[in-house]
Amino acid sequence: MKFCALLACKNRDVKNKKTSGIKHHVFPSEDAIRGQWISFVNKFNRTLDWTTKANKGAYLSEDHFEKDLYSQSGCLVHHAVPTKDPNLLQKRPLR
Predict the structure, then answer these.
(1) Which of 4-8, 36-40, 76-80, 86-90 has the lowest mean pLDDT?
(2) In DSSP terms, which residues pair with 81 in a beta bridge?
(3) How far is CA 65 from CA 72, 85, 87, in A?
(4) How far apart are CA 40 and CA 12, in angstroms?
(5) What are phi and psi of 48, to 5 degrees?
(6) What is residue 46's DSSP assignment?
(7) What is the mean pLDDT of the chain?
(8) What are 3's strand-pairing partners?
């Protein structure tokens, strides 16, 4: 089951991700970028030891990334790092 790794994310508990229209991104395999994603999660979850190994279904929802981090085809660019505070996001209506 996919879920947004950020506890405060308004899209964390979306029941049907296919019909919601919300993209969830898998953590990157490149260590440097993956580390930045994990630091982002730890910052907002107020943890120091969160890892993707212990949370295999963890993803980050598209709302944590700036719009300019997406290619024209709608894919997240290779070097993308999340920056948007989950506490400031509003729950989006289902499409």
Answers:
(1) 86-90
(2) none
(3) 15, 10, 14
(4) 16
(5) -120, -15
(6) T
(7) 81
(8) 58
Predicted local confidence at residue 16, as pLDDT: 57
Which of 84, 95, 94 is CA-nearest to residue 6?
84
9 sits in which H/E element = none
In whole angstroms, give the CA distance from residue 42 to residue 51. Answer: 9
Q: Are 94 and 17 in contact (CB under 8 A)?
A: no
- Tokens representing 4? 């947004």
Nearest to 62 by CA among 42, 43, 77: 77
Structure tokens that stand for 8 in this block: 């405060």
Q: For 49-88, how does the pLDDT look when each residue is reduced to its tens digit (9 = 90+)? A: 877 676 676 889 999 999 999 999 999 999 999 999 877 6
CA atoms of 85 and 15, how far apart (whole Å)? 22
Query: Sorting pLDDT into bands at 50, 70 and 90, what band is 22?
Result: confident
Query: Tokens 């910052």 identify what position?
Result: 43
